[in-house]
User: What shape does this take?
Amino acid sequence: MSPDQPVTRDVAMEAKAWPFEEARKLLKRVEKRSADTPVVFQTGFGASGLPHIGTFGEVARTAMVRHAFETIDDHPTRLISFSDDMDGLRKVPTNLPNQDMLAQHLDKPLTKIPDPFGTHESFGHHNNARLRAFLDTFEFDYEFLSATECYESGRFDETLLKILQNYDKVINIVLPTLGSERQATYSPFLPICAETGNVLQVPIIERNVDAGTIVYQREDGKKVETLVTGGACKMQWKADWAMRWVALDVDYEMAGKDLIESVKLSSKITKAIGGTPPEGFNFELFLDDKGQKISKSKGNGLTIDEWLRYASPESLSLYMFNSPRKAKRLYFDVIPKAVDEYITHLGNYEGQTEEPVKQAQNPVWHIHTGHPPTEHVPLSFNLLLNLVSASNSDDRDVLWGFIRAYDESATPENHPLLDRLVDYAVNYFKDFVEPTKTFRAATGEEKAAMLDLIERFERVAAERPNDLADALQTEVYATGKDHGFEPLRDWFKALYEVLLGQSQGPRFGSFVALFGVEKTIALMREKLGEPN
Assistant: This one.
């Protein structure tokens, strides 16, 4: 099996990677379906706030399941990215401009509220554009659907009438989950007021199934009859979710762990109106640096643009692939590890050519839809960060000079990923590492050991130039042991704190080989107050 050879169906049926497990579950649902009937995947976007990485994660993971499914089945597939942009604005997100203006439009559909950024037709249109822009950046194959367009065009009319016909069934499913006060006013239909344009949460006092209308009572006591079709009403979101599943023939949709009960309720509504709930699973939530759930209204956590300033899109996709059922911090400090894990998986992939199941389970197969690049990256991201730190340079040519001295075959042209990593490392160092660097003086014991290490480095450079990194690392270990550092990690911590101004660092021998023995010795003498 070559690095670019497609994974066969037999391999995919055996592979244990979670997208394949999900695909096999979905296969049971559709295996008796006619060959030309598409299998529909859906992701939802709450357009009341700006898209965040959690939104991307849902689409990325769903796309991975879709690709895995296409490997084991021949049905055509579709991926719908659905925006609930007809929802009424209930509160003003704190991370938006023109707060006072937005506050004047509370309860209006998002596509009827002016854009606070002044760039689009409405607030909803602006957020939809942001969503589509970052999905396009990652080259997702998707169909965008707007709730406003689907409601107003009549696309949902047939299913809305089904809900009206089964109104009592739906009500009886929802009411037991509500408090007594909310039970008194609840309706699955939210009329759009013809006078104010607001999305109303009012009790329904009459229904006319034949006419397709409901009657509600306004606060002033006036009774108003309105159609449930054509965009005159919007559904409450749990009923709305079920309505979409039926109207769009959705086969698969995943959701956050916080929506488990909502999935169950929407599934009951789906069955009540004659539909079949989609397959899917519940993923864990992302947390910010304080361990709090990421919220688009608060704007905590990372944005797509922030991640892409410091790391490759592939590393972000890997972060989404890993352990989707495990809660993870999504903050700046997770980026270097994600980058290096991606480099490791990419390096392993080509060596797994004789073990196709391992290739199918390798995250890069899912990240690159079965066609990972073959580039070997000779340096870790952490090593690059420390090169930027020690060289005190953000000049790409200078940094590439160090890289070429370390690996003569490496050039920006034949290592495009490494070339991008250089820029990411400079950005990350400037914004996160440099402001926190704190150098300290070596203790007497540490200084003696480091002076000894300098002598060993000089000897190794002269005697073993061909396996320099490993030889240097061996001497670092030996020096720490010979000078009685216990535990040995205290020795490495001392090297990092005295020489690099941080408590952790890369494999030190590899760093010295990259930075250069002479330059490292000069750095050590400078930090120890010794003449060069």
About this structure: The longest helix spans residues 53-72. Residues 1-146+284-374 form a domain with the Rossmann fold fold (CATH 3.40.50). The chain has a mean pLDDT of 93.
